Amino acid sequence: AKRAGGSTYALYETHMDEGAQEQLHLLNDLRLAIDQGQLQLHYQPKIDGQHGQIRGVEALLRWNHPERGLLNPGLFIPIAERFGLINSLGNWVIDEACRQMHAWAEIGLHMRVAINLSVHQLREEDLARRIEAALARNFVEPSQLLCEITESVAMEDIKSTQRAFEQLARIGVFLSIDDFGTGYSSLSYLRQLPARQLKIDRSFVCDVEGSADARAIVSAVIQLAHELGLRVVAEGVETQGQRDILLALHCDELQGYFLARPMAAATLEAWTEGRKPV
Ligand code: C2E
Ligand code: CA
Ligand code: CA
Ligand code: CA
Prior knowledge:
The chain has helices spanning 4-15, 18-33, 73-82, 86-106, 119-122, 127-137, 151-156, 158-171, 187-190, 202-207, 212-227, 240-248, 265-272; strands at residues 39-48, 54-65, 69-71, 113-116, 145-150, 174-180, 197-200, 231-234, 253-254. By secondary structure, it is α/β, with parallel strands linked by helices. An eight-stranded mixed barrel has the order 1-2-4-5-6-7-8-9, surrounded by four helices. The structure holds ligand C2E and calcium ion (CA) (3 copies).
């Protein structure tokens, strides 16, 4: 008789797609990555539109995998989110960013650092307390820390976003709406969130040179954001032309390869020589 169960399983195993196999490997490695010190933060400057000075940096997570080298978060954050590891990763990022701010302050570099928060972290009851404790442990003023939350995920679960934002604002950290324009929220909804900053998604920045529509959208977003008291950052600025248009539209800060790439802490220290934070 044919052992259907066994052969079906074997068939499934051999045909299991390589993507899923790879994810499983990465998941197992990722469980060890924190303890084994394989994570690091890179920092990308946000540049003031008026003066060209550095306004702060965004911390971007990197995984220095023992065999595969430096991995970008697009490869492992979705896995961490799916399999319940994102809160441990996120907590590591909070601690490391605060530790780095303290180390920089010790050498006279008072840098505002932005971290990216996942929606799973916003749902954790003790997020604000955890951030507050990490700041205090490292003698960092809460207003030096900025938390970026992607618009689409923030609006997906409005109730927990609002609660988390209010708790974070109460402890004095600044909040930023990331990737604006990719979700479906109206600007009037933003009024209800205590945010300080809005980041225009790269997909719009990419098009400002070639598309009058994209320019009109970006222009309207900047004007309305300003009326709501938000500072506007354009992300993914790659060309001089994009920069010139964004500045003409009164964008406050620029971020992108045209200005500076994400870099390791030591590289950033060298880069900021002569461009002290404002
Ligand atoms: P994001 O927050 O929108 O970050 C901007 C991404 O664009 C970064 O990719 C950055 O390296 C890249 N970038 C910057 N300038 C340019 C440019 O001029 N052109 C292009 N093409 N890309 C540019 P990265 O570092 O791979 O991060 C991807 C995403 O992963 C981030 O998107 C963020 O959503 C997420 N992420 C990064 N670090 C963390 C973290 O610590 N926690 C969480 N939850 N998410 C993170
Ligand atoms: Ca971000
Ligand atoms: Ca972004
Ligand atoms: Ca983006």
